[in-house]
Specification:
The complex is a heterodimer of chains A (635) and B (107). By secondary structure, chain A is an all-alpha fold. Chain A has 28 helices and 2 strands. The radius of gyration of chain A is 31 Å and the shape is elongated. With 107 residues, chain B is an all-alpha fold. Chain B has a single domain, classed as Orthogonal Bundle (Helix Hairpins). Chain B contains 3 helices and no strands. Chain B is elongated, with a radius of gyration of 18 Å. The chains are: A mainly alpha (635), B mainly alpha (107).
Chain lengths: 635, 107
């Protein structure tokens, strides 16, 4: 393919599907075809992406760029750049999206707005692929905002529900805080001379030192702030749990596998900035470590199964950020890939359960294992993969992250390692708490008793995802369609993440310990969580209220922002407006005097005109000897 | 080329200046709008007299002076037509043609 126009088709096909669905298949009665249009487009994208990955991995990247517009010495391009990183990401996004769309046919059947749902999903898929394939930071930013608006539209898909509308707004506004930073980074680069936006040109400039160290650090931190918003990192993570108001396949695709991983992808794509700025790397690692631990603790106290998974996603994204922060580039991207499969799987199983029992509360389920065997089994596979149990995919990727943290020379990496290990234990605990409560024991409600397995369009993708979640660890040694392992595909040859046996064992024991605690508390009833809560009420209170971070943001929004706005409004009303009013008042006063000069007598005007003419003539010609002589009559 | 005229050019210029001044006073001082228009006509013709005089005493080889005078007469005719129409409308509106009673623009 070699950088041919077919690269544009990878995001182009789903975007075309969006137009087709929006034009022809939006209305009820004509929307039966909508999913098939999208699935066809995604199959095409996937095929092209696989080809591109096979051609680019471990070799020269495929690159294509067309000038788009040229303004004031700045040239913007529309480009496509496929190397190992974007190639892997393209295949993951196209594949997950494809399977989720198949699942959606079953899940969304009979919903009002069936066509609208697939139109939004097409727009999202195209934008996400465009974001991944982009070769320059401006194009990335444009698609970044596009996936943001798709996320908004899909969270608020059931817009008649006030909670969904509020969650959509919250997601949009909160991520805006981070996007502001990303935009600032783009602006800084546009003011830099020479202004370049292409990632690989920027990488070269950073390498030869054409961009000053301070600028590199600033850009890295600002880009990271965009990633913090999009990837729901502390302290901007608060929108993701609420985003679960959207349909479950949306949560699986956008808020677990792809869009929220865009932040991690962006940091990986712009990693050359971070590699040249140790301070920025430390911030990435710190935020990642805090997020993974806080996310895991909050997940352990949640009762809504989708929100458990949302906190889990926050936590796992924290793992990826931590890995990137300590320099474990391969580990971070590898975890991104495996996580996309097992987290999408977990969300889809959750959707299957919700479809059957019509509730999100795990305490209204129970005993679903016998009634929904495929869902229960695939969920177990996902949970084991997420918990990092040998030999499922999560084990290999999480192990690489722990090894990277362990072997890093960053100050405080002991603390990071401790938090990560705590995160591993908690991950296993909250996942198996969910699984034991929902799928084992006796049904707690009539609806749980009447539950039955979902149709094959839903269980089919579950089985495929389960296979992927189980086997994706093998990517470490061999990525299909390429000739090397994951690190070779990414072009990283330094084997800095040599997993030590001690770390492996520690992580495995921690995860098994977490599962054991969950089993003891929620299956075997050996220990009572109620007794624990009664003994130490603070923990439950803190976690159930999500560390009071929502409250803190609410206070910030209602007090600080409102007070600041009031001050700004006062300034606007009295100072800015006062100045404008003052000018108007002065004009009024002056004109009240000046209007007296207007007599309305046409002959007076003529007199003024003549006198003015004479004065003008004297001023202009008065110095000329000849005219003077003429006027006084001497030759 | 005709022989040099008996009267020197200053004579024409003095007459022209007098005509212009009389016209100017008429424009500035007369109250009747028709009289004001007459003053304008006087001023225009003072200028015409200058054009023709300078043409005659300036050698008379080229025709600009005469051409200008004819153009001014043409424009003056058009101006008179429009101005009289305006005066007629002013009279219909205000029932007077005294320019000092027409002061709608007074500030």
């Amino acid at each position: 393919m070699g950088g041919s126009f077919q690269l544009y088709l990878i995001p182009g096909l789903p975007l075309a599907a969006f137009l087709v669905i929006a034009a022809f298949a939006l209305r009820p009665g004509r929307d039966r075809a909508a999913p098939f249009v999208l699935i066809g487009a995604l199959a095409g994208s996937l095929w092209l992406a696989i080809q591109a990955l096979g051609e680019a991995a471990g070799r020269a990247p495929l690159w294509l760029a067309l000038p788009w517009l040229s303004v004031g010495g700045l040239t913007f391009e529309v480009g496509a750049w496929v190397d190992g990183l974007s190639g892997v990401m393209l295949v993951v996004v196209a594949l997950v999206s494809l399977l989720v769309q198949v699942y959606s046919i079953g899940y969304m059947r009979g919903e009002i707005g069936y066509g609208r749902y697939f139109a939004y999903m097409s727009l999202f898929s195209g934008s996400m692929l465009g974001l991944v394939i982009s070769d320059n930071i401006v194009q990335t930013y444009i698609f970044w905002e596009l996936v943001g608006i798709c996320s908004y539209l899909l969270i608020g898909f059931w817009y008649r529900r006030p909670a969904a509308a509020a969650a959509a707004k919250k997601a949009f506004v909160v991520t805006r805080f981070g996007d502001l930073g990303f935009l600032t980074a783009v602006l800084i680069l546009s003011f830099h001379r020479p202004a370049v936006f292409g990632f690989h040109q920027l990488a070269q400039m950073v390498e030869v030192g054409a961009i000053s160290g301070g600028t590199v650090t600033a850009v890295a931190l600002l880009v990271f702030s965009g990633a913090v918003g999009k990837s729901a990192q502390f302290p901007l993570h608060i929108w993701l749990p609420d985003a679960m108001e959207g349909p479950t396949p949306v949560s699986a695709l956008i808020h677990a596998a792809t869009m929220v991983a865009a932040g991690v992808y962006l940091v990986a794509r712009a990693f050359f900035f971070f590699a040249a700025a140790p301070a920025a790397l430390f911030v990435v690692a710190l935020i990642g470590a805090l997020t993974l631990f806080l996310g895991a603790t909050m997940g352990a106290a949640e009762n809504d199964i989708k929100r458990v998974l949302a906190y889990s996603t926050i936590s796992q994204l924290g793992f990826m950020m931590l890995a990137l922060g300590v320099g474990g580039y391969t580990a971070g991207v590898f975890h991104l890939t495996t996580h996309a499969f097992f987290k999408a799987l977990l969300f889809l199983t959750a959707g299957s359960v919700i479809h059957a029992v019509h509730t999100n509360d795990m305490w209204h389920m129970g005993g679903l294992g016998r009634r929904m065997p495929i869902t229960a089994a695939t969920c177990l596979v996902g949970a084991l993969a997420l918990a990092g149990i040998f030999p499922l995919s999560g084990f290999w990727s999480k192990d690489e992250i722990l090894a990277a943290v362990w072997s890093s020379r960053m100050p405080g990496h002991w603390a990071f390692f401790g938090l990560a290990l705590g995160g591993v234990v908690l991950t296993a605990f909250y996942m198996f708490r969910l699984w034991f409560v929902a799928f084992t024991g006796e049904p707690r409600t009539e609806e749980a008793k009447a539950a039955h397995e979902s149709p094959w369009v839903m269980t089919g993708p579950l089985v495929l995802f389960a296979a992927a979640a189980a086997a994706a660890g093998a990517l470490k040694w061999r990525v299909p369609w390429t000739s090397g392992g994951f690190a070779d595909v990414l072009g990283v040859h330094a084997g800095q993440e040599t997993a030590s046996t001690a770390v492996m064992a520690l992580a495995l024991v921690g995860a098994l310990g977490g599962i054991a605690v969950a089993w003891a508390a929620y299956r075997a009833n050996l220990v009572s969580s109620a007794a624990f809560n009664a003994r130490v009420p603070a923990v439950r209170l803190l976690l159930r209220n999500a560390w009071y971070l929502n409250r803190a943001w609410e206070l910030f929004a209602t007090r600080v922002v409102i007070a600041g706005s009031a001050a700004a409004a006062w300034f606007d009303r009295h100072v800015v407006n006062g100045m404008v009013d003052g000018v108007a008042w002065m004009c009024g006063r002056a004109s009240r005097r000046l209007r007296l000069a207007q007599t309305g007598q046409v002959q007076f005007y003529a007199l003024v005109f003549i006198v003015g003419l004479i004065v003008g003539l004297v001023v202009v010609f008065g110095r000329e000897e000849s005219l003077l002589a003429l006027l006084v009559g001497r030759p | 080329m005709s022989p040099a005229p008996p009267i020197p050019i200053q004579g024409y210029l003095v007459v022209s200046a007098l005509l212009f001044s009389i016209g100017l006073v008429g424009v500035l001082a007369r109250r009747n709008a028709i009289a004001v228009l007459l003053g304008v006509e006087l001023m225009l013709n003072a200028a015409n007299l200058n054009f023709v005089a300078f043409w005659r005493y300036g050698g008379g080889a080229r025709m600009e002076g005469q051409v200008f005078a004819i153009v001014v007469i043409t424009v003056a005719a058009a101006e008179a037509a429009i101005a009289l129409a305006i005066v007629l409308n002013v009279y219909r509106r205000f029932r007077t043609v005294n320019v000092d009673q027409i002061n709608l623009m007074k500030g």
